[in-house]
Design a protein that fits this description.
272 residues; alpha/beta; Udp-n-acetylmuramoylalanyl-d-glutamate--2,6- Diaminopimelate Ligase, Chain: A, domain 1; 2 domains; six-stranded mixed sheet; five-stranded mixed sheet; 13 strands; GTP cyclohydrolase 1 type 2 homolog; DUF34/NIF3_sf; metal-binding; metal ion binding; DUF34/NIF3
Length: 272
Amino acid sequence: MRLSQVIAVLDDLYPPAWAESWDAVGLVCGDPDQEVRRVLLAVDPVAAVVDEALEWDADLILTHHPLLLRGVHGVGADTPKGRLVHRLIKNDVALFTAHTNADVAVPGVSDALARAVGVTGELRPIVPSADDPRRGLGRIGELPETLTLEEFTARAALGLPATVWGVRAAGDPDRPVRTVAVCGGSGDSLLNDVRAADVDVYLTADLRHHPASEFVEAGGPALLDAAHWATEHPWLAGAAAALTDALDLTTRVSTAVTDAWRLHGANNEGEK
């Protein structure tokens, strides 16, 4: 199996034209003619993931987050990202990124997040794409039964990979929850769209204090805030399955927890 064949499948699953104009997706390093047998999937292109790839003898790393999102003028080994590029090239490991093009795909990052927290049935985008209303940013769906916000928060925490951040909620703990909106990664840019979508709760990551407080005070849906890494991690298994369905490859989802936050100190009130 050649890397070019893998890229063709990935570009079909997550067309680069779907990526935001500011994004950097596709092949970061690697020879399209090189052989690929093993693919490691991870959220972040960081040292721990490269360590795992080398230990497992991977030929390709597929990540959600770009390594080189902003323009660079060099990849010298005296910088953290430059060192990663050197290690990858020296060991013939390619790196490929599917970021915002995977966010809007069907199935994509938010589909996997919705399923991970118990949303069933048909999903629809929070913000449909202009050229195809079936795909777009975020997803909205229904729980099989009505839960309280407190119960749904617990379910979401169990459905997502564990982090010290956990899952925190804003709103009345007894509020009934049935219609759920989700967005993998940083989703506060969709707050106005969520407010207009007639949902009970919105699960995303990286919510800021003032927008969240004002949103809830104004009578918007309840909010769940999880770790950024945790909301995007569920996508990896589906992407791995899609690759193995299309190609004769061995895939593995990285075991590295690459969430940036490693410690959590809480008082008794914070532990509730």
